[in-house]
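Section 3.1: Structural characterization of target chains.
Under the original work plan, the team committed to producing a structural model for every single-chain target entering the pipeline before any wet-lab resources were allocated. The record below documents one such target. The sequence was received from the expression subgroup and is listed exactly as submitted; it comprises 900 residues.
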Amino acid sequence: MPARPGSEGIGDALAPEVEALLMSSLDSPPESRDEYLAQATDDPELRSRVRELLAAHARGERSLRRLAQRIGAGSEPSPTTPERAGPYRLIRELGRGGMSVVYLGQRDDGLFEHQVAVKLLVPRPGNDALLKRFEAERQLLARLGHAHIARLLDGGRTEEGWPYFVMELVDGVPIDQYCDDQRLNIEQRLGLFLQVLDAVQYAHRNLVVHRDLKPSNILVSPAGEVKLLDFGIAKLLDEDGLEARPTELTGLGGRPMTPAWASPEQVLGQAVTTASDVYALGALLYVLLCGRSPYQGPLDEPESLRRAILETPPLPPSRRLGDLGDGHETIAAEVLAERRSTRPARLRQQLQGDLDVICAVALRKTPERRYATVEQLATDIERHRARLPIRARPDTLGYRFGKLVRRHPVGLPSALAMALIVAAAVFVHTERLEAERNRAEIEAARAEAAAESAVRQATRAGLISDYLVGLFRAADPHFASDHATLTAMDLIERGVERTHELADTPDLQANMLVTLGYVYRNLGENTRAVELIQSAVDILAAHPGEFAGEHIDALNALGLALAENGAHHDAAEHYRLALAEVALDDETRRASILNNLAATLNALGDYEGAEAAHREGLAIRLRLEMGDYEEALSRNNLGAALWRQGRIEEALEEFERALELRLNDPDLGPEHPYTTTSMGNVAASLMALGRLEESYAIYTEALRLRRSALGEDHPRIVPLLHMMGRVRWGLDDVDGAERYWTEALAIRQARLPPGHASIGASLNALARVALHRGDLEHAESLLLEALEIKRAAYGDDHPGVADLRANMARLRERQERFDEARDLLAAALTVRLERLGVEHPAVLETKRQFVDLELAAGNRAAALDWSHQALGLMGANNTGEESELLELQQQISELTASLR
């Protein structure tokens, strides 16, 4: 049977009720077990049987200790224990380990009196290595001064020559026992656990890894203060957080550790890092949450324990409570829940989701896949307590399936592999949306009867399971009627067709449609994404007031899909509908919708409105401490609004901050599309500031990373191609600019619907190339098509339409159609003044273009007037390079002289 970590299993087959009561009794202090048994059961025979087992257990532990002492001591007699250690009188033994013994000490030298813990090394012949380890522990403790680490007070040797050190006496009990004795609920246990994390993180910052974290080394005082003890097998790290070079201290006999709390790398004798402590903390959290070891099987058998540590992923703690009505663990589950001041069904509900995931990540078998630091683990605990989405992600089905394929590379049908991977993506995204979107509903549901909640959750889980199993079978040649090999797109579309099976649960059906819409959107199939998400909105709208949160989220998702498809006015309308339905206190949703609305306002040319919405969303995210991911999102989009207003240096600050946050985000990293978006925005700002070579280098790397992540022809690589063309144009590399813009146009025309505004941007760019080369007819054709697309998408008063009119004016100037050119340029100037403001660089650019136009038309007086306007604007706005200013002043002087 499973034994709790740190104890010995008895191993005989027992009746379930005997086993349950025995296990709970072992968790109680020995001196209070009789009292506990009297309260736990009215059955005298059951109490008697458990008392016999407890006595046998105690005898077995004493025998093991005597055996260990004989093995450790050989034939040498035990030396007589000293009566004093320096100024401290040794009163009684508190505990002993393999190399040392701890005594209660009383200082009585007349200076002052207080009690301490005195740890002595028991002298043995040939124990030089033990002595070095003991002295190393004393040196480690001397490095550490923290409120939750027992303090080192003194040290030296007794008159008999025994090495000792003196520590703060901790009046407390092991953390798991304290939690159970006090009947702490899950929230209170997490608060206590955060104290432990704070202490371990402090040790790690001081390059010390504990290596033996377990309840008996973590005591809690009656006041609820944690103290971390026993650095006897701790290890110094080098500056990179890796184990320092081996010494005699690390190479003593077997590997120093407590097996039931050891990490896989400790069991294998591999390098120990801070990740080893993270693993032990995961095991401790697991026990505090559900009262059971993360391992199953006979843990008193070394080989069984080794296999459990190295090979078997722990069940989620919510599933280790035992199923209700299962006869084998029902009583134990009730006792465990009672110790957490709740009921089994409620406890299960509390552990499901975030806490299951946090334990799973901390207990991953490979160190690099765990939390990178204790601080990251603490952050997720704090985010869970604040009802914010945690940063950790569970292993996806795709990841687990990939491991299966690597173990068994032959014989798995490729279509089934694709089915598992795609369905896993859908399922994980669905579950993640459920967790993030329905926190309010989850909190309300928790107030309902446990049985009703369990039935409802089981029903939903069953529906999702049936739905996904149907998809798997559709891709498996053993079940598919047509025996065809399905592509990923085939499988997703079949998933859409099967959503009718969820019609009896409209919220679940709509959620699945939204998820599949996101899948299509991420694949660049935006039109299909809009169709599916619109269907979800319609389904939820048919149940007014019943699924308010889901309806808001579906409107928000539809806005995203419409914006991606170029329908920005429709997108803005749906965002505003969503905002109108959001409760005032639902700030998390409000921040998300504001962010999306602001991005659409940016596209529509309302840059001040976009800035205001982004600042409101950013303020919410910072106030709620929603984390780096959310802050980066707001800062990146705020930077875009500032950039569009010509406030390039302000924009660059926001872009660089967003990029830094995303590069350091373990869930994103450099290849994620969000990160490469930030890279592109930094590059765009550098381009606008004239730092073209720096800009091009960043764009080149961003394009490489995005292609690696999304493929060669995904629509989301096009913005990078387009901007790289602009950089090459600025570097007078017309051929290079044309290559980028031609590729961007080809992808947009192939992957976007006809008339998409982005197609107009590519046509406009290529028209500049044609105009530069003197191919006026081709330039006119491109500009007319681009202007038609932009006007249809945005209307006549959009800054993008003004850009096209300015380019068309250049063409008309080259064609000597000066009156048309003036009209076009005047219309462009009006829009730029109204929509961008007089300080925007585009206004100055327009006035200087008027100078060129009037000079080409031979109207020197008008050219002089526009030159004075441009010069005045440069002075008022304090813009323009010194060379530009001198050039304009020289032009004014020449024009003035020519008109005399």
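The radius of gyration is 35 Å.
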